[in-house]
Design brief:
With 353 residues, this protein is an alpha+beta fold. It is 55% helix and 9% strand. It is globular and about 50 Å long. It is built from 17 helices and 7 strands. It has helices spanning 9-24, 27-30, 42-51, 55-62, 80-110, 119-125, 147-156, 197-201, 215-228, 237-247, 255-265, 268-282, 292-297, 302-313, 316-322, 324-335, 339-352, and strands at 114-117, 137-142, 160-162, 170-175, 178-183, 205-207, 210-212. The protein folds into 3 domains: 1-78, no CATH class; 100-213, Beta Polymerase, domain 2 (2-Layer Sandwich); 214-353, no CATH class. The strands form 2 sheets. The protein has a 5-stranded mixed beta sheet with strand order 1-2-5-4-3. The relative contact order is 0.09. Helix 15 (316-322) packs across helix 16.
C-alpha cells in the first residue's frame, strides 16, 4: 500500500515551484487560478500536503483564492476535490476564528497586555485569507507575572484546562473545542538569554481586530522558533510563513536589527539555520530571499556555517525519520551560541521535564 503521507521528489519540486511563483507574483495576478495540471495529485499526496500545512495554500491557488464557487461554464478546476478541500479549510478556519474571538473578548475584558502569536496571527497578516494558514491550536503570549491571571480570566469565561501536556513557561486550555496555548515566554526559557515577552507586548498592534506582535517581533520569532523546536525538518508552512513575511512586509525589513535581537537572545545559530532553509526552499533567481548581509551580521563562526549547510543538505526530515535521537542530539548541540547557552538549556530541561 502506498504511504501517501510522503511525496516523491518530483511532487515536492512541483509544489515548491508553484509556491515560488506565487511569492513572485503581483497581488492581482495571484488571485487568478493557477494551472491545474501543475498541482500535485490530491488523492495521492493529500496527506503529505496536509501534514506540511500546505494543503490550504494549494487549495487557494487551485481555485484562484475565491470564496465563491467558480462559474460552471468557466470552471478552471473540473476536479471537485480541490474545491471540497477549500471548503473544508474555510470551515476549519471558522472554528479557529470562533475560539479566537472568545479568547479575545475574555482577555480584553481582563485588561492585561497580551497577543496572539505564530499561526493564528500570521493567517491574518500575510495570507490573502485566514483559511489559507490553518493551525492545530492557538498560541498566546502574556507577561510572566500575568500568566496565572490570564488563565483565570479564560477559565472564568468557560475555558477548560488541559493537564500534563505543557512546559514550565506555558499553560494549555480548550476554548470552544480548540486548544489554546498560553505562553509567558515565546519559547522554552532555557533557550533564551532573556525573556523578551514584556518588551514585545509593549509594542503590539491590532490586526483585523486581534492583538498581535509587531511585524518585526513576529518575524524574529518566526526565524528562531523553527530551529529550536526542530520544525526545520517538518511543517514547511513555517518556512512559507517567513517567505511571506519578507515578501509582503509593508516596510523594508530591518535586517541589522533582527540580527542584533537574535544575537542578544542567544539564538543567532537558530536564525542562521532557518535562513538557510528558507533560502533553499523559496529563493529564486540570483537574489536570496533572506540577504547574505543578515546572515553575516549573525556572526556565526565559519565551522558552524559549514555544519549547518552540511546538515541541511542531508535532508533533515530523513535524518529525523531514520534516527530521531541522533539527529536531535547533533542538531541541539550545535544550536547554542555559546557553552553557557548550552548549560542553561540543559539545566532548564532537567528542572522542567
Amino acid at each position: 500500500m502506498r504511504d501517501d503521507r510522503r511525496m516523491n521528489k518530483t511532487g515536492v519540486e512541483q509544489t515548491l515551484g508553484l509556491l515560488r511563483d506565487w511569492l513572485e507574483s503581483e497581488a492581482q495576478s495571484a488571485r487568478h487560478p493557477h494551472n491545474v495540471a501543475s498541482l500535485p495529485d490530491l488523492p495521492t499526496h493529500g496527506r503529505w500536503l496536509d501534514a506540511e500545512g500546505l494543503l490550504p495554500v494549494l487549495a487557494g491557488l487551485a481555485t484562484g483564492l475565491r470564496l465563491r464557487e467558480p462559474d460552471r461554464d468557466h470552471d478552471p478546476l473540473p476536479d471537485p476535490a480541490w474545491r471540497a478541500q477549500r471548503l473544508n479549510c474555510v470551515g476549519r478556519s471558522l472554528r479557529l476564528k470562533i475560539a479566537g474571538a472568545a479568547v479575545r473578548d475574555a482577555l480584553d475584558a481582563w485588561g492585561g497586555p497580551w497577543a496572539f502569536i505564530k499561526g493564528f496571527a500570521l493567517a491574518r497578516s500575510v495570507y490573502e485569507y485566514p483559511w489559507m494558514r490553518l493551525a492545530a491550536d492557538i498560541d498566546l503570549l502574556v507577561r510572566p507575572q500575568d500568566l496565572d491571571a490570564a488563565v483565570a480570566a479564560l477559565r472564568a469565561a468557560g475555558a477548560r484546562p488541559i493537564a500534563g501536556s505543557v512546559q514550565g513557561h506555558e499553560r494549555a486550555l480548550t476554548v470552544r473545542g480548540v486548544e489554546i496555548d498560553l505562553h509567558n515566554a515565546p519559547m522554552s526559557k532555557g533557550r533564551l538569554r532573556h525573556n523578551p515577552a514584556e518588551r514585545w507586548l509593549g509594542r503590539r498592534c491590532r490586526i483585523d481586530g486581534y492583538p498581535c506582535l509587531s511585524a518585526h517581533d513576529e518575524l524574529l520569532l518566526s526565524l528562531i522558533h523553527p530551529a529550536v523546536t526542530e520544525y526545520l525538518a517538518a511543517r514547511l508552512v513555517r518556512m512559507l510563513d517567513i517567505a511571506l513575511q519578507v515578501r509582503r512586509s509593508r516596510e523594508p525589513v530591518d535586517w541589522p536589527r533582527l540580527a542584533d535581537d537574535a544575537r542578544r537572545l542567544g539564538l543567532a545559530n537558530a536564525a542562521f539555520a532557518t535562513a538557510i532553509r528558507v533560502n533553499h526552499l523559496f529563493s529564486s533567481g540570483p537574489d536570496a530571499l533572506i540577504p547574505l548581509s543578515f546572515m553575516n551580521a549573525l556572526r556565526v563562526d565559519p565551522l558552524r556555517r559549514r555544519y549547518w549547510r552540511f546538515w541541511l543538505d542531508r535532508q533533515p526530515d530523513q535524518l529525523f525519520r531514520r534516527s530521531p535521537l541522533r539527529a536531535g542530539l547533533l542538531f541541539g548541540l550545535w544550536l547554542n551560541d555559546s557553552p553557557r547557552d548550552l548549560l542553561r538549556a540543559l539545566d532548564y530541561k532537567r528542572r522542567h521535564w
